[in-house]
């Protein structure tokens, strides 16, 4: 074996049929469950077949001297990535966001095995392209037409040094999305608030949850583009009262800008990224989190437009 060959980390998640079987025990029980609710199992099975065929194509393309590890989405928070790993994500775009928070400089390749179902904004490549991409990774031939697109992350750092990264957005608030109480500070502006939580998004996440929130605002916040080192933040449903205000309800962070939030929640306060609550950081009364553009970016492999 060539000891200099990269270690390829193939990241997947349970397919639709696998998820149904995990929930109901057998495929027959899953079919019965769907039929009872007038849902078509054959549609799910067709999507499952596309995913499995694409994954098989990807795995067959891995050079024999490369070390290979397959990791499920549910195990990402326990997996230790090495600095020289190459990460190959097979699935929908959200799976790239799920893995990005655990990476620090490793190349990430997104593969879409079912373009009829998923847009492929981050998972841009078809399974058939993987052999050429892996040759580019190994030798960096510019004529093969691939390049690296850095996608900045957002980070939330607590006063004790704990950090949480996200590719799309961070959520700061109550785990159950009930009222969260805290003090917000941006520059020389400070305000005590009660709200449904705060969203801090990157340019990558600007097309998702943040776009929906921004579209409902009377004064929209300028959203960053996918490669811009900037963050937009939004306070969800701030409540005006004798003790809480609503004037500091959104804005942009660039360069060294920092949004500081001090919790006043006796229980349930949390900070989590990209919808993954499994590795949430506690945010209890008296604890402070500083939100800013991270000092790292996802190294996403994309087709060279030349």
* CATH architecture descriptor text of the largest domain: Sandwich
CATH topology of the largest domain: Tumour Suppressor Smad4
Question: What is the element string, with H for helices and E for strands?
Answer: EHHHEEHEHEEEEEEHEEEEEE
Tell me the count of domains: 2
Q: Percent of residues in helical segments?
A: 10-25%
| Total DSSP E strands | 16
Indicate the radius of gyration in whole angstroms.
21 Å
Can you walk through the features of this model?
The protein has 306 residues and is of the alpha+beta class. The chain has two domains: 7-144, Rossmann fold (3-Layer(aba) Sandwich); 153-294, Tumour Suppressor Smad4 (Sandwich). 21% of the residues lie in helices and 35% in strands. It contains six helices and 16 strands. The strands form two sheets. Strands 1, 2, 3, 4, 5, 6, 8, 9, 13 and 16 form a ten-stranded mixed β-sheet that branches. Helix 1 (16-24) crosses helix 2.
Short overview:
With about 300 residues, this protein is α+β, with helices and mostly antiparallel strands. About 20% of the residues lie in helices and about 35% in strands.
């Amino acid at each position: 074996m060539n000891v200099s060959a990269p270690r390829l980390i193939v990241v997947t998640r349970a397919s639709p049929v696998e998820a149904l079987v995990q929930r109901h025990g057998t495929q027959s029980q899953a079919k019965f469950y769907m039929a009872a609710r007038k849902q078509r199992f054959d549609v799910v099975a067709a999507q499952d077949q596309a995913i499995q065929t694409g994954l098989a194509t990807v795995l067959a393309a891995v050079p024999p001297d490369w070390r290979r590890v397959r990791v499920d989405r549910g195990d990402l928070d326990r997996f230790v990535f090495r600095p020289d790993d190459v990460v190959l994500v097979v699935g929908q775009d959200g799976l790239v966001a799920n893995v990005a928070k655990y990476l620090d400089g490793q190349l990430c390749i997104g593969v879409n095995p079912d373009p009829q179902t998923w847009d492929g904004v981050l998972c841009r490549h078809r399974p058939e392209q993987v052999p050429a991409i892996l040759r580019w990774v190994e030798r960096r031939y510019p004529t093969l037409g691939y390049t690296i697109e850095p996608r900045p992350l957002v980070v939330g750092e607590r006063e004790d040094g704990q950090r949480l990264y996200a590719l799309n957005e961070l959520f700061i608030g109550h785990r159950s999305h009930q009222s969260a109480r805290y003090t917000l500070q941006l520059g020389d502006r400070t305000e005590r608030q009660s709200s449904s939580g705060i969203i801090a998004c990157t340019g990558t996440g600007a097309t998702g949850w943040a776009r929906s929130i921004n579209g409902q605002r009377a004064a929209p916040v300028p959203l960053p583009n996918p490669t811009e080192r900037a963050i937009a933040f939004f306070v969800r449903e701030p409540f005006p009262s004798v003790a809480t205000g609503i004037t500091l309800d959104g804005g942009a962070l660039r360069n060294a800008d920092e949004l500081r939030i001090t919790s006043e929640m006796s229980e349930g306060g949390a900070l989590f990224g990209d919808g993954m609550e499994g590795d949430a950081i506690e945010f209890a009364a008296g604890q402070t989190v500083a939100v800013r553009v991270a000092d790292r970016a996802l190294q996403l492999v994309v087709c060279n437009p030349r």
